[in-house]
Specification:
Strand content: under 5%
Number of strands: 0
Number of helices: 18
Helix content: over 70%
Structural class: mainly alpha
Order of helices and strands: HHHHHHHHHHHHHHHHHH
CATH architecture of the largest domain: Up-down Bundle
Number of domains: 2
Radius of gyration: 20 Å
Length: about 400
């Protein structure tokens, strides 16, 4: 594997790990800084998570646009250095307001996912893009697995230890990138930075006009909105439906993250060679729909554990969709496109958990007319079906 590609994958993995690494200690850390109860800590935890996702939404297109103007290398390296400093500040934070400021800055620096994806698009031949986006998805999946595990282990040394570890990881990767990362934005594809296109709403409007990809952008958004059900509901669903313990829930999430990494890292290329990009997207959507319907009604915890790797196979559609989108826009718009996709993912992460948890609450409360813990998965199946319909009716006109 080429060293720049390895750097990009590590960067994406650190972005994912940085979120999960600190999750195990956040309840205790918030109580330390506020002196409140666990319930109050949960409220603050939601505020911190929303602030993080909101900053990703706002700054994804900005960093993507800056990378189109000044290059991917400076944006990635500066963001990693600021990220390292931010984690140090959070490790020393003595107030909830400093933690909030840290999460705001952390959300901005984590918005480099768009720039990392743009770099991967720059160095990939057209037929390689979907496969390489699959590698990015695999790296994110591995970070999702490793982050909570490492955070739980490091918590034995105190609530601040995971932040120090995250800072060291970001700093080490910045040094690695300084040595191996070459710039891919040349004068041929460089373009001026425009605030009108850099804000997420302006960028979405601009990109939707490029190559007629508006329909595919909607498919991308609905896909992410539907799949947010997994992190948002999984712990509550498995506890209510099967009485799983926290340790078993953690193991199941690790299995899902590992399965996701394997699917996107090893199956995307063969699927595209066998079916082509367009059919791979549709196949992924159909697998997701079937999996979500099964999860809505499943009655056996053991069967659920066995089905987790199968549900992850549906993730092969997303890299194929990203590859189609990347080929549909010009080389000098790759950063802007990836910034828009990052912002849409952030919107899904802000809104979807509220929708999914409210749905779960409505169908599991004591006076519910129908007790159905899997209702959020059925809602997600409907949303995923809508994505498939839009793709089949309009997206296929673009992909051929």
């Amino acid at each position: 594997m080429r060293l720049p590609v390895l750097f990009i994958l590590i960067t994406v993995m650190i972005d994912a790990m940085g979120i999960g690494l600190i999750l195990p200690v956040m309840p205790d850390l918030i109580r330390e800084t506020t002196g409140g109860t666990l319930a109050q800590a949960a409220i603050w935890g939601g505020i911190l998570s929303t602030a993080f996702a909101a900053m990703q939404f706002l700054f994804g297109p900005i960093l993507g646009g800056l990378s189109d103007r000044f290059g991917r290398r400076p944006v990635l390296l500066v963001s990693l250095l600021v990220m390292a400093a931010d984690y140090v500040v959070m490790a020393l934070a003595g107030s909830i307001w400093l933690l909030l400021a840290g999460r705001i800055v952390g959300g901005i620096t984590a918005a480099t996912h768009s720039t990392a994806s743009a770099y991967m698009a720059d160095i990939s031949a057209p037929h390689e893009k979907a496969r390489n986006f699959g590698l990015i998805g695999a790296a994110f999946g591995m970070g999702f697995v490793l982050g909570p595990v490492m955070g739980g282990l490091l918590a034995e040394w105190g609530t601040r230890a995971p932040f120090i570890a995250a800072a060291l990881l970001a700093l080490a990767n910045a040094a690695f990138g300084w040595l191996v990362l070459r710039e891919t934005v040349t004068d041929r594809i460089r373009r001026p930075f425009q605030w009108g296109r850099a804000n997420p709403f302006g960028a979405i409007r601009a990109v939707s006009k490029l190559g007629g990809v508006g329909s595919l952008i909607w498919v991308y958004f609905l896909y992410h909105f539907a799949t947010v059900v997994y992190p948002a509901i999984w712990a509550y669903f498995t506890a209510a439906r099967f009485g799983w313990s926290p340790s078993l829930i953690g193991v199941s999430l690790a299995v899902y993250g590992l399965s996701l990494a394997v699917a996107q890292g090893t199956l995307v290329g063969p699927a595209i060679r066998l079916f082509g990009d367009a059919r791979t997207v549709l196949l992924g959507l159909l697998i997701q729909i079937i999996s979500l319907v099964i999860l809505g009604f499943i009655a056996s915890g053991n069967l659920l554990l066995m089905l987790i790797p199968v549900t992850a196979i549906g993730a092969i559609g997303l890299p194929a969709l990203q590859g189609i989108l990347s080929r549909a826009v010009a080389d000098n718009a790759q950063g802007e496109l990836q910034g828009v996709l990052t912002s849409l993912t952030s919107v899904a992460m802000v809104v979807a958990p509220l929708v999914m948890t409210q749905t779960f609450a409505q169908f599991t409360r004591a006076d519910a007319g129908l007790y159905l813990p899997g209702a959020p998965f059925l809602l997600s199946a409907v949303i995923m079906t809508l994505a498939a319909v839009i793709y089949q009716m309009r997206g296929r006109q673009i992909t051929g």
